[in-house]
Amino acid sequence: MTSASAGSPNGRPDKWSETGDTTPAEHAAHVEKTLLQARALIESTVSLYRRRPDPGHTAPHTDVAVLGEAVEQLVFRARHSVCVALPDADVFALIARKALAGLAPGPVVRLLCAPEVADADLGALARSPGARFEIRVSEAELRDIVIADGTAALVRAGAGSAKGQATLVNDRAAVRALELLFAGAWSGGRKLDDHLALSPRLLGDLTRRILERLRNGYTDDAAARDLNMSLRTYRRHVAEIMRELGASSRFQAGVRAVELGLLLE
Prior knowledge:
Number of helices: 11
Mean pLDDT: 76
Strand order of the largest sheet: 6-5-4-1-2-3-7
Number of strands: 7
Largest sheet: 7 strands, mixed
Radius of gyration: 21 Å
Strand content: 5-15%
Distance between the termini: 7 Å
Helix content: 40-55%
């Protein structure tokens, strides 16, 4: 991580930094731009795929029973890996969790979910005698996705006239694009156990905003003004965040926040 130079418009000193040629803000902007481009590619690819005339390669699913069968078939035929993204605690999440619970030993399963989906039951799933599970929690925007062996995927529309409709994708290029999007979100996620151990304070929006200003090298005065709070209140928040992160310095707090997925690298 690097910070803005002292000559930046905000006059931010190098309080939380390492050597590098780009600021954290520039790096984050680049990552965001790349992910947006990947998402746009995926949206266009899946949209084109849906419009293919050959019904043997696409299978829209909206009925719960049919959707459950499609997810189970995709998951149970996997031999090496299964990647699942669950953005909401809805019927699709229940279907996916049921299918994963019945998965035979063998495949490595990477389950990425939004904070509202993460619970202790997922931890029990990870300890089941079936497949090898890795579970992470992400603040990133997710889409309902199931990817099996990097060769087939089921993606569910989240908006528009096709909202709720799931499409089975066998095109290798489209599946690869979905894998790349999943990998980007996975790399910024935090382990389920770490997430469950976090206090509500650390998951709050105020903590994220304070950590962003610490990382970007704001002075305490500038950060307090930017957040519309007194300097004393701001410093109290910083001290409490550091204590909950188990950090003895602001730099350590930043490192720990990135490790937990509270901040992007």
